[in-house]
């Protein structure tokens, strides 16, 4: 079974970060507060679905959908 990622979330859906699939991108995401065990919520998507906006650690974080796909979430 394939792991779900933040890119798979629907608007308003919450999840907890489990790990990352891309080591280089994980460094960037960790610096922005996306730590394993942190709850994230998909706040909104751009009209064409990319980029997306997440609520994480008390602030809004915008990122590309390809970046969000590297953030694996707990099932």
TrEMBL record:
Molecular functions per Gene Ontology: transition metal ion binding
Stretch forming the signal peptide: none
Pfam families documented for this protein: FeoA
Keyword Ribonucleoprotein found: no
Every Ferrous iron transporter FeoA-like domain range: 4-75
InterPro entries from the UniProt entry: Fe-transptr_FeoA-like, FeoA, FeoA_core_dom, Transcriptional_repressor_C
Keywords assigned: Iron
SUPFAM superfamilies the UniProt entry points to: C-terminal domain of transcriptional repressors (SSF50037)
Protein name as annotated: Ferrous iron transport protein A
Organism: Larkinella punicea
């Amino acid at each position: 079974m394939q792991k779900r990622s933040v890119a798979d979330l629907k608007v308003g859906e919450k999840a907890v970060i489990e790990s990352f699939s891309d080591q280089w991108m994980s460094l960037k995401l960790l610096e922005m507060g996306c730590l394993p065990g942190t709850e994230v919520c998909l706040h909104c998507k751009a009209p064409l679905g990319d980029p997306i906006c997440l609520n994480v650690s008390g602030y809004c974080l915008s990122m590309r959908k390809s970046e969000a796909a590297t953030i694996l979430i707990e099932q």
